[in-house]
Design a protein that fits this description.
Number of strands: 16
Structural class: mainly beta
Distance between the termini: 43 Å
Largest sheet: 4 strands, antiparallel
Shape: globular
Strand content: 35-45%
Low-confidence stretches: none
Helix content: 10-25%
Strand order of the largest sheet: 11-16-13-14
Mean pLDDT: 91
Length: 284
Protein backbone atom coordinates (compact mmCIF):
# COMPACT_ATOMS: atom_id res chain seq x y z
CA UNK A 1 0.00 0.00 0.00
CA UNK A 2 1.04 3.61 -0.59
CA UNK A 3 -0.22 6.52 1.47
CA UNK A 4 0.17 10.23 0.75
CA UNK A 5 -1.24 13.12 2.76
CA UNK A 6 -1.23 16.89 3.08
CA UNK A 7 -2.14 19.17 5.96
CA UNK A 8 -5.53 20.84 6.27
CA UNK A 9 -4.42 23.72 4.05
CA UNK A 10 -3.12 21.74 1.09
CA UNK A 11 -4.02 19.12 -1.49
CA UNK A 12 -1.84 16.60 -3.29
CA UNK A 13 -0.23 17.53 -6.59
CA UNK A 14 1.76 14.60 -7.96
CA UNK A 15 4.87 15.74 -9.82
CA UNK A 16 6.12 12.34 -10.97
CA UNK A 17 5.16 8.71 -10.46
CA UNK A 18 7.07 5.72 -11.77
CA UNK A 19 7.32 1.98 -11.31
CA UNK A 20 10.52 0.06 -11.91
CA UNK A 21 14.06 0.04 -10.58
CA UNK A 22 16.76 2.70 -10.85
CA UNK A 23 18.86 1.60 -7.88
CA UNK A 24 20.19 -1.81 -6.90
CA UNK A 25 19.94 -0.92 -3.18
CA UNK A 26 16.32 0.18 -2.72
CA UNK A 27 13.90 -2.64 -1.82
CA UNK A 28 16.69 -5.19 -2.18
CA UNK A 29 16.69 -6.98 1.19
CA UNK A 30 16.34 -10.72 0.69
CA UNK A 31 16.31 -10.42 -3.09
CA UNK A 32 18.81 -12.26 -5.32
CA UNK A 33 21.12 -10.10 -7.50
CA UNK A 34 19.28 -11.26 -10.62
CA UNK A 35 16.19 -9.36 -9.41
CA UNK A 36 18.00 -6.11 -8.51
CA UNK A 37 20.74 -5.71 -11.12
CA UNK A 38 18.61 -4.08 -13.83
CA UNK A 39 18.60 -0.40 -12.87
CA UNK A 40 17.44 0.91 -16.26
CA UNK A 41 13.81 -0.01 -15.63
CA UNK A 42 11.12 2.64 -15.30
CA UNK A 43 7.59 3.35 -16.50
CA UNK A 44 5.25 6.27 -15.76
CA UNK A 45 2.14 5.49 -13.70
CA UNK A 46 -0.64 7.92 -14.71
CA UNK A 47 -3.12 6.20 -12.36
CA UNK A 48 -1.38 7.77 -9.35
CA UNK A 49 -1.95 11.25 -10.77
CA UNK A 50 -5.57 10.44 -11.54
CA UNK A 51 -6.39 8.93 -8.17
CA UNK A 52 -4.51 11.30 -5.87
CA UNK A 53 -4.36 14.80 -7.36
CA UNK A 54 -6.62 17.24 -5.53
CA UNK A 55 -7.09 15.05 -2.44
CA UNK A 56 -5.88 15.82 1.07
CA UNK A 57 -4.90 12.18 1.56
CA UNK A 58 -4.65 9.21 -0.77
CA UNK A 59 -4.17 5.49 -0.13
CA UNK A 60 -3.41 3.15 -3.03
CA UNK A 61 -3.10 -0.58 -3.45
CA UNK A 62 -0.11 -1.08 -5.75
CA UNK A 63 -1.47 -4.31 -7.19
CA UNK A 64 -2.11 -3.69 -10.89
CA UNK A 65 -1.43 0.03 -10.57
CA UNK A 66 1.28 0.22 -13.26
CA UNK A 67 -0.01 0.00 -16.85
CA UNK A 68 2.37 -2.88 -17.64
CA UNK A 69 5.49 -4.68 -16.38
CA UNK A 70 8.47 -2.57 -17.54
CA UNK A 71 11.09 -5.25 -16.81
CA UNK A 72 9.96 -8.82 -16.32
CA UNK A 73 12.00 -10.69 -13.70
CA UNK A 74 13.18 -7.53 -11.91
CA UNK A 75 11.87 -6.76 -8.42
CA UNK A 76 10.29 -3.33 -8.77
CA UNK A 77 9.20 -0.45 -6.54
CA UNK A 78 7.13 2.71 -6.93
CA UNK A 79 8.66 6.18 -6.71
CA UNK A 80 6.25 9.09 -6.30
CA UNK A 81 7.13 12.75 -5.85
CA UNK A 82 4.36 15.10 -4.80
CA UNK A 83 3.88 18.53 -3.32
CA UNK A 84 1.07 19.99 -1.25
CA UNK A 85 -0.51 23.03 -2.85
CA UNK A 86 -2.86 25.43 -1.04
CA UNK A 87 -6.40 24.82 -2.26
CA UNK A 88 -10.01 24.76 -1.14
CA UNK A 89 -11.99 21.52 -1.24
CA UNK A 90 -15.66 20.63 -1.55
CA UNK A 91 -17.34 17.22 -1.14
CA UNK A 92 -21.02 16.75 -1.97
CA UNK A 93 -22.91 13.47 -1.65
CA UNK A 94 -25.01 12.24 -4.57
CA UNK A 95 -28.19 14.25 -5.00
CA UNK A 96 -26.89 17.30 -3.16
CA UNK A 97 -25.64 20.70 -4.24
CA UNK A 98 -22.04 21.77 -3.78
CA UNK A 99 -21.37 25.43 -3.04
CA UNK A 100 -17.98 26.88 -3.94
CA UNK A 101 -16.98 30.35 -2.80
CA UNK A 102 -13.95 32.62 -2.76
CA UNK A 103 -13.90 35.41 -0.20
CA UNK A 104 -11.07 37.09 -2.08
CA UNK A 105 -10.47 36.33 -5.72
CA UNK A 106 -12.15 34.13 -8.28
CA UNK A 107 -12.58 30.38 -8.61
CA UNK A 108 -10.20 28.26 -10.68
CA UNK A 109 -11.07 24.56 -10.61
CA UNK A 110 -8.09 22.29 -9.98
CA UNK A 111 -9.62 18.79 -9.91
CA UNK A 112 -13.11 17.30 -9.95
CA UNK A 113 -14.41 13.75 -9.69
CA UNK A 114 -17.90 12.32 -9.45
CA UNK A 115 -17.47 8.79 -8.16
CA UNK A 116 -15.88 7.16 -5.12
CA UNK A 117 -12.25 6.86 -4.03
CA UNK A 118 -12.69 5.69 -0.42
CA UNK A 119 -15.18 3.76 1.71
CA UNK A 120 -15.87 6.41 4.35
CA UNK A 121 -16.89 9.60 2.52
CA UNK A 122 -20.69 9.90 2.18
CA UNK A 123 -21.12 6.45 3.72
CA UNK A 124 -23.58 7.09 6.55
CA UNK A 125 -26.63 4.85 6.27
CA UNK A 126 -25.41 3.19 3.10
CA UNK A 127 -25.15 -0.61 2.70
CA UNK A 128 -21.65 -2.01 2.42
CA UNK A 129 -22.07 -3.12 -1.19
CA UNK A 130 -22.56 0.51 -2.28
CA UNK A 131 -19.18 1.53 -0.81
CA UNK A 132 -16.80 -1.19 -2.00
CA UNK A 133 -15.79 0.23 -5.38
CA UNK A 134 -13.15 2.85 -4.57
CA UNK A 135 -11.82 3.05 -8.11
CA UNK A 136 -14.77 4.99 -9.50
CA UNK A 137 -14.03 8.04 -11.64
CA UNK A 138 -16.26 10.05 -13.93
CA UNK A 139 -14.37 10.72 -17.17
CA UNK A 140 -16.02 14.09 -17.75
CA UNK A 141 -16.33 15.68 -14.30
CA UNK A 142 -13.77 18.45 -14.74
CA UNK A 143 -15.32 20.06 -17.82
CA UNK A 144 -18.84 20.86 -16.49
CA UNK A 145 -17.53 21.99 -13.10
CA UNK A 146 -14.96 24.28 -14.74
CA UNK A 147 -17.58 25.67 -17.10
CA UNK A 148 -19.97 26.41 -14.23
CA UNK A 149 -17.45 27.90 -11.81
CA UNK A 150 -14.22 29.22 -13.32
CA UNK A 151 -13.88 32.98 -13.04
CA UNK A 152 -16.76 33.38 -10.57
CA UNK A 153 -16.67 34.41 -6.93
CA UNK A 154 -19.16 31.64 -6.07
CA UNK A 155 -21.03 28.86 -7.84
CA UNK A 156 -23.34 25.90 -7.29
CA UNK A 157 -22.87 22.38 -8.70
CA UNK A 158 -25.39 19.52 -8.63
CA UNK A 159 -23.87 16.12 -7.75
CA UNK A 160 -25.84 13.74 -9.93
CA UNK A 161 -25.30 11.26 -12.76
CA UNK A 162 -27.56 13.33 -15.02
CA UNK A 163 -24.76 15.92 -15.06
CA UNK A 164 -21.70 13.67 -14.94
CA UNK A 165 -22.95 10.28 -16.22
CA UNK A 166 -22.75 7.20 -13.98
CA UNK A 167 -19.17 5.85 -13.85
CA UNK A 168 -19.96 2.89 -11.56
CA UNK A 169 -23.53 1.65 -11.46
CA UNK A 170 -24.62 0.47 -8.01
CA UNK A 171 -21.98 2.48 -6.12
CA UNK A 172 -23.06 5.44 -4.00
CA UNK A 173 -21.11 8.38 -5.36
CA UNK A 174 -20.06 11.87 -4.35
CA UNK A 175 -18.62 14.92 -6.07
CA UNK A 176 -15.14 15.89 -4.85
CA UNK A 177 -13.69 19.21 -6.04
CA UNK A 178 -10.50 21.07 -5.29
CA UNK A 179 -10.12 24.66 -6.41
CA UNK A 180 -8.01 27.78 -6.08
CA UNK A 181 -9.12 31.28 -5.24
CA UNK A 182 -7.07 33.27 -7.72
CA UNK A 183 -6.32 36.79 -6.52
CA UNK A 184 -6.52 39.77 -8.82
CA UNK A 185 -3.43 40.10 -10.93
CA UNK A 186 -3.19 36.50 -12.07
CA UNK A 187 -2.46 36.19 -15.78
CA UNK A 188 -3.39 33.29 -18.03
CA UNK A 189 -2.50 32.04 -21.48
CA UNK A 190 -4.13 29.45 -23.72
CA UNK A 191 -2.48 28.35 -26.95
CA UNK A 192 -3.59 25.59 -29.32
CA UNK A 193 -1.41 22.65 -30.29
CA UNK A 194 1.34 23.39 -32.85
CA UNK A 195 1.43 27.07 -31.84
CA UNK A 196 3.58 29.08 -29.41
CA UNK A 197 2.70 31.48 -26.63
CA UNK A 198 4.65 34.33 -25.05
CA UNK A 199 4.42 35.20 -21.36
CA UNK A 200 5.35 38.76 -20.45
CA UNK A 201 5.68 40.82 -17.29
CA UNK A 202 6.22 44.54 -16.81
CA UNK A 203 9.70 45.88 -16.24
CA UNK A 204 10.97 45.12 -12.75
CA UNK A 205 8.82 42.01 -12.35
CA UNK A 206 9.34 38.35 -13.25
CA UNK A 207 7.15 35.34 -14.01
CA UNK A 208 5.96 33.02 -11.24
CA UNK A 209 4.12 29.99 -12.65
CA UNK A 210 0.91 29.07 -10.82
CA UNK A 211 -0.35 26.14 -12.90
CA UNK A 212 0.08 24.57 -16.33
CA UNK A 213 -1.38 21.76 -18.40
CA UNK A 214 -0.77 20.53 -21.91
CA UNK A 215 -3.74 18.38 -22.86
CA UNK A 216 -7.49 18.93 -22.89
CA UNK A 217 -9.99 19.49 -20.06
CA UNK A 218 -13.01 20.66 -22.05
CA UNK A 219 -14.47 20.09 -25.51
CA UNK A 220 -14.75 23.75 -26.60
CA UNK A 221 -11.29 25.31 -26.24
CA UNK A 222 -9.27 25.15 -29.49
CA UNK A 223 -12.11 23.26 -31.17
CA UNK A 224 -12.74 25.26 -34.36
CA UNK A 225 -12.63 23.02 -37.41
CA UNK A 226 -11.80 19.91 -35.39
CA UNK A 227 -13.82 16.67 -35.60
CA UNK A 228 -15.66 15.56 -32.47
CA UNK A 229 -13.34 12.56 -32.12
CA UNK A 230 -10.41 14.92 -31.42
CA UNK A 231 -12.32 16.81 -28.71
CA UNK A 232 -14.12 14.07 -26.78
CA UNK A 233 -11.39 13.21 -24.27
CA UNK A 234 -11.47 15.89 -21.56
CA UNK A 235 -9.29 14.28 -18.90
CA UNK A 236 -6.01 14.68 -20.78
CA UNK A 237 -2.96 15.86 -18.82
CA UNK A 238 0.73 15.88 -19.71
CA UNK A 239 2.39 14.78 -16.49
CA UNK A 240 5.38 17.07 -17.02
CA UNK A 241 3.44 20.26 -17.85
CA UNK A 242 4.23 22.20 -14.69
CA UNK A 243 7.87 21.12 -14.68
CA UNK A 244 8.48 22.05 -18.33
CA UNK A 245 6.79 25.46 -18.13
CA UNK A 246 8.44 26.32 -14.81
CA UNK A 247 11.85 25.33 -16.15
CA UNK A 248 11.43 27.54 -19.21
CA UNK A 249 9.77 30.59 -17.67
CA UNK A 250 10.09 30.86 -13.88
CA UNK A 251 12.00 33.96 -12.76
CA UNK A 252 12.20 35.49 -16.24
CA UNK A 253 10.71 38.77 -17.40
CA UNK A 254 9.39 37.07 -20.54
CA UNK A 255 9.52 33.68 -22.22
CA UNK A 256 8.13 31.71 -25.14
CA UNK A 257 6.95 28.11 -25.10
CA UNK A 258 5.47 25.84 -27.77
CA UNK A 259 2.36 23.72 -27.33
CA UNK A 260 3.64 20.56 -28.95
CA UNK A 261 4.20 16.87 -28.32
CA UNK A 262 7.93 17.37 -28.88
CA UNK A 263 8.03 19.64 -25.82
CA UNK A 264 5.62 17.84 -23.48
CA UNK A 265 5.19 14.35 -25.03
CA UNK A 266 1.72 13.20 -26.14
CA UNK A 267 -0.59 12.53 -23.17
CA UNK A 268 -3.57 11.46 -25.31
CA UNK A 269 -2.91 10.29 -28.85
CA UNK A 270 -5.59 11.38 -31.30
CA UNK A 271 -6.84 14.28 -29.16
CA UNK A 272 -6.21 17.86 -30.29
CA UNK A 273 -4.55 19.52 -27.33
CA UNK A 274 -3.83 22.98 -25.98
CA UNK A 275 -1.52 24.50 -23.39
CA UNK A 276 -3.06 26.38 -20.47
CA UNK A 277 -0.83 28.43 -18.16
CA UNK A 278 -1.68 30.68 -15.23
CA UNK A 279 1.03 32.86 -13.72
CA UNK A 280 1.79 35.91 -11.62
CA UNK A 281 4.18 38.78 -12.22
CA UNK A 282 6.12 39.32 -9.00
CA UNK A 283 8.85 41.74 -7.99
CA UNK A 284 12.39 40.54 -8.55
Amino acid sequence: MMFFFCSDTGVISVQSATCGRTSSQICSVGRPPSETSNTQCSIDVPAIFKRCNGLRECELNTQGLAPKDPCFGTYKYYTTNYICIPAETSVTCHGGYGYLKCENGRIQINTANYGRTDKTTCSEGRPSEQLQNTNCYSPNALAPVSKSCNGLESCEVFATHTVFTDPCFGTYKYLAISYFCLPSGVCSSIVCEHESTALNCDEGTVISIHSANYGRTDSTTCSTGRPASQLAKTDCYALNSQTVVTSGCEGKNNCSISASNSVFSDPCVGTFKYLYISYFCVLK
